[in-house]
Amino acid sequence: MGSGIWVLTLLILHSVFEGIAGQEQELNHRTERISGSAGDVLEDDPVGRLKVFVYELPSKYNKKILQKDPRCLNHMFAAEIYMHWFLLSSPVRTFNPEEADWFYTPVYTTCDLTPSGLPLPFKSPRMMRSAIELISTNWPYWNRTEGADHFFVVPHDFGACFHYQEEKAIERGILHMLKRATLVQTFGQRNHVCLKDGSITIPPYAPPQKMQTHLIPPDTPRSIFVYFRGLFYDVGNDPEGGYYARGARASVWENFKNNPLFDISTDHPTTYYEDMQRAVFCLCPLGWAPWSPRLVEAVVFGCIPVVIADDIVLPFADAIPWEEIGVFVAEEDVPKLDTILTSIPIEVILRKQRLLANPSMKQAMLFPQPAQPGDAFHQILNGLARKLPHDKNVYLKPGQKILNWTAGPVGDLKPW
Amino acid sequence: MKQTAGQHPNRRPYSAAVPGEAAALRPPSFLFWSAVHVLCCLVSAALGFRFSRLLFLLLFSPASHHHNHHHHVHLVRQPPAAVIPFPPPPPPAVAGRVGVGRHGIRVRPWPRPDPAEVARAHEILVRLQKEQRLRYGVKDPRPVVVVTPTYARTFQALHLTGLLHSLMLVPYPLTWLVVEAGGVSNETAALLAHSSLPVVHLPFHEDMPVLWNDRHRFEARMRLRALRVIRERRLDGIVVFADDSNVHTMELFDEIQKVQWMGALSVGILAHSAAPDATAKRQQRASEQETSPLPIQGPACNSSGQLIGWHTFNYLPYAKKAATFVGDGVTVLPTKLEWAGFVLNSRLLWKEAEGKPNWARDLDEVGISGEEIESPLDLLKDASFVEPLGNCGKKVLLWWLRAEARYDSKFPSRWVIDPPLEIVVPAKRTPWPDAPPDLPYQRIANEGGHVEKHVSKKVRSYRSKRSSRNKKKHETHVDTQVSEMSSAQEK
């Protein structure tokens, strides 16, 4: 009789655990855990793992610029502003600079907009240089490491090269003063001057509220095979063709404009977000720079991103296994894009959709207001935390100087 | 959106204003080169295109002009002179694989879609949509039982084929009960054989009446016959009343899965008017300003989503212009509440079913002793338990439409002309006069049975170059046509 009761309790416990495991399996069947090369880090909580000190700069570096042009809050470079606001009220902020691991300088370099809303980078090097001069004279922490434990958010087209034209950006190179600092930028391309080792690539800003309001029921069948809306030729700046997007976008148009599987055009439809949710593949080709908010939109709407940009480094590349989530097509293979996409095995496509359906993946691409756990702000902090502890040799010996304060083009040395 | 799709449309408006451009050279070679440049510009202006490319091609291009690359590089937007490969691009400024500067636009030689690939893409889409339905769609879908009254007539092929294709797209297991007036006919059977759906073809051994009011009642009796079959065979599922001329959306079949016992949907009424005259138009315009342009029949709810009444069809604008019989030239109007707007759980019809509510009448008692069944609400004792579907009737999921040819119109059997017409000679005069003839029924009603031979037999005989055998065939064909016409007159 006693053994019977034992057997019964064992059976009950077994079935209970089986039930739990079954439920987890069902959850896994719908979405999959995302683990990149750094491991399963998307859901890590940075609080307690690092401390950030925010310099108090005069408002001419941040508040006044924003007041002059509030459009900076909505364009794709708005991450620098939202990162500042996030850090001001975040639990990782510390008011004691002696215990800080990282130092943040809030300078809005991408907020000098033309009337049509494009940021002009011509004053940005001077502004950055002026800010660094300020912090190096008022606080001792810059000179202690020459910026090696400081980080800056530079979301412009080519990061800290501060130019929109690639040749000019390459010519300028990264601003000399930022040689030792960690750069948090949207631009990422391997073997490129404007991406230095140890940078953290982030997604461009896409308005999360706006995307939320355009969600459609998930059982709407995905009936568009490939979707893209945008320019193929930039007639204003590249009248002969061949420069814009290294000819890749033009190649997409010329090869597939008659293909019924490809819904591509230069339209600006009001149902852009809804259409993306009805598409299986969304093209994310390079433009003047390799990155674009299309990647963020594709991930949020569950459309598999087809990245056509050679050597691109995607956001949070060590936390998100982009190879398993998106499709990468070399620019020279664009004429074969239809063959490539239709010959992907169906299980692979289903797996990619499952990975995209994971809510932590979508959260990691967004900058919501107010901040939520797992969002891009936290991923940036996680990235910074993974770089800790600092190497001993970042701390300079007294009197040692590495940076040359007169390096760079002459125009940069003028005060701002 | 603008920011994403635009990607800096006016990217470099200030390139001229970039400070710190390299200072110009001053030696005399500069003057020489600028003179050459001016000369080249003038020549280009004269010729109409940039001839420097042509020059480079002729002077410097290697012999590999006609390499048979799979995707050879050529610029598409050249002047139509030639397909010219590029002069070699400037060496990349970066020691990496990807270089800045001009690149060719790669176009494959025959940029047309490959049908095999398109087929594969469609297979992928089908599989993905199935997966989507599994993940987000209805859990434990119930089978669907479709009840359709029909009869063989001119427009049957049109309507029934449309309904057939709609039902073939339904992703749930389906049983189709087709009740045919006048018994089972080859016409209908041939149409139904085109699908692989499980069809139960039920005969109803009376002929379809001609007057619309009679017809509505008749159809109700046909549907009751089908419901009795469901009861006998204990078919399980959700009963949908799909008339063959109605138009159904696929979302309808997803929405009805939510029904517990009996549900009501909104039906859009496409009551077309054939030839509205001035007064009707004015009335219509006045009424349209107040109500929505499409009349809708369906459940009406209060703000908390409970059923409080029914939206029915407003007959006033059509007071004088309603069709009375099939094939009348004027608007056909629906009944107050169409059967199509209701769905039932088939267990409501069974003799005994678990959890069957007591507000439903037993099917055996319905319809006997001459009771008139107008709408499925007559199957219930209490109509307040009907569940409103489709976001409480706000979403229109099907449309009611009645478009029929004249009731005596003829069509070739199974829409196949056999034997095929070899020579068709247009008749100089059509067999029927230009004015629409009085319909036989009307004439009988007006003149009390007096039949006129209204139409002259003005059919031309066919001329055939073939043998006499063919001639006979044609003549018999003509004769049958003429005899059909005369028999039509005599009805």
TrEMBL record, chain A:
List the PANTHER family hit by this protein, alphabetically: BETA-1,4-XYLOSYLTRANSFERASE IRX10L-RELATED, EXOSTOSIN HEPARAN SULFATE GLYCOSYLTRANSFERASE -RELATED
A GO biological process of this protein is: glucuronoxylan biosynthetic process
The UniProt keywords, alphabetically, are: Glycosyltransferase, Golgi apparatus, Signal, Signal-anchor, Transferase, Transmembrane
* Residue span(s) of domain Exostosin GT47: 49-344
Which GO molecular function, any one, fits this protein according to its record? glycosyltransferase activity
The record's similarity note reads: Belongs to the glycosyltransferase 47 family.
Q: Does the record's keyword annotation contain Transmembrane?
A: yes
InterPro entries registered for this protein in UniProt: Exostosin (IPR004263), Exostosin_GT47 (IPR040911)
Q: How does it sit in the membrane?
A: Single-pass type II membrane protein
Q: Name one GO cellular component term.
A: Golgi membrane
Under what name is this protein listed? (wild Malaysian banana) hypothetical protein
- Which subcellular locations apply to this protein? Golgi apparatus membrane
The main location class comes to Golgi
List where this protein forms a coiled coil.
none
Automatic annotation (TrEMBL), chain B:
| Positions of region (Disordered) | 278-299, 445-491
Report if keyword Protein transport is assigned. Answer: no
Give the highest taxon in the source lineage.
Answer: Eukaryota
Compositionally biased spans, kind Basic residues: 455-475
Q: Write down the membrane topology.
A: Single-pass type II membrane protein
Membrane-crossing residue ranges in chain numbering: 30-49
Q: Which InterPro entries match?
A: Glyco_trans_43, Nucleotide-diphossugar_trans
Cell compartments where the protein resides: Golgi apparatus membrane
Name the top EC class. transferase
* Entry EC no(s): 2.4.-.-
- Share an example GO biological-process annotation for this protein: cell wall organization
Q: Which SUPFAM superfamilies match?
A: Nucleotide-diphospho-sugar transferases (SSF53448)
Q: Does the record's keyword annotation contain Glycosyltransferase?
A: yes
Which spans does this entry mark as compositional bias, Polar residues? 289-299, 479-491
Keyword terms of this UniProt record: Cell wall biogenesis/degradation, Glycoprotein, Glycosyltransferase, Golgi apparatus, Membrane, Signal-anchor, Transferase, Transmembrane, Transmembrane helix
Recorded hits in Pfam families, A to Z, give: Glyco_transf_43
Q: Which family does it belong to?
A: Belongs to the glycosyltransferase 43 family.
Instruction: Outline what the protein does.
Output: Involved in the synthesis of glucuronoxylan hemicellulose in secondary cell walls.
Q: Which PANTHER family match?
A: BETA-1,4-XYLOSYLTRANSFERASE IRX14H-RELATED, GALACTOSYLGALACTOSYLXYLOSYLPROTEIN 3-BETA-GLUCURONOSYLTRANSFERASE BETA-1,3-GLUCURONYLTRANSFERASE
Give the protein name, as stated in the record.
Glycosyltransferases
